[in-house]
Here is the input.
Amino acid sequence: MSVWKPGRDLAVDEIIVRFEGRAKETTTVPNKPTLTGFKVWGTVQRGFLIVWNWHIPGIKNGPVGVRTPRELGGTKKARNGRNKTQAVVLHLLKRLPKPPEGSGYHVFLDNLFVSTRFIEYARSQGIAVTGTCRETGGVIQELLDLKKKDKKDVIKWGETYSMFTENSQVCHIGWKDQAFVLMMSSLMSGNEKVTRLRKRPKETSFKAKTTRVPFGKASEKELEIPAIADAYNYHMGAVDEFDHLTAQNAGLRHVERGGYQALEHWLFRTVLINCYLLALCSDVPEPRAVSFRSQQDFRGQLIGALLGKGRDGKLSRKRRISRISQGADQVPVRSHEQMKLGRRGICVCCKGMRFKDRPKKRVALAQIASNQGKESL
Here is the structure.
């Protein structure tokens, strides 16, 4: 895992902050681990949430503060009334620091964002895009015919088709895995291969007739797959890794009243996760002053350090108060008699004393001294 730096590979996807109470800003996404809550667009690298943008559902709403450029379908008079799903990617990346010379951002996206027009426009802005795509995203017709042909499971596993657009700016890739996968990229092609250990699919899996052939009788086997598919699988899971780190918090509460509480807890957990990843991946030479084995261990040590810091501050405050309480105008504790004051009354005697030096009040049903309240005979 690497700490985020300008020019590294990123992923953009939607994040759901869980909240099932009454709020018009909540939305429901069926294919997410958290179904209902506040929708957030986030830029993530291996679990490290860099920037995010809030989303308000509705026809005239969407990502807050995002304007659709004319190249992506927006008009000069009503850019906010168009689809801003693709525009939110550029909006998030423009909020990042400017990368060093000779480098740029390479973002991985799923088929919700990717199209030929979007990748060409992002390339003109100095941003490389790689991701899966839908059949309606401007895919080359030959690849669409192959995908339609593969409905009868006739293409062998591992077959890869790589084709460029007429302007040679976008590469369209078709790869047969368990299904015929369509991908696009402005930086990578389907010609590069890498070797990865794969598991044999079950006999009841979809299109198992062709996908089980390369394995033979082995349950696992090292096979060559396109480098673009391997990079997509590795980097696109960054948002899922962030959700996994968030779910590891044992003190996570189920909030149904007060949407501000859900957002406040989510922001606090985001800070803790980012601090954990920074501490985990920092370039501090070994041995470190602080070492931890997991996120729970990191949070436990952080809580202990904060409590220790507060304890030290409390002791120093007691010493300062004790010096004030030694003034000449203070009444001795033994000769002080408690009196009932007004609503905002302040006892001059107890004002500068420490808590332990103040006279103790009588406790209800406490033991009464044997000679208390008796007149001497």
About this structure: The CA atoms of residues 94 and 125 lie 10 Å apart. The two ends are 86 Å apart (CA to CA).
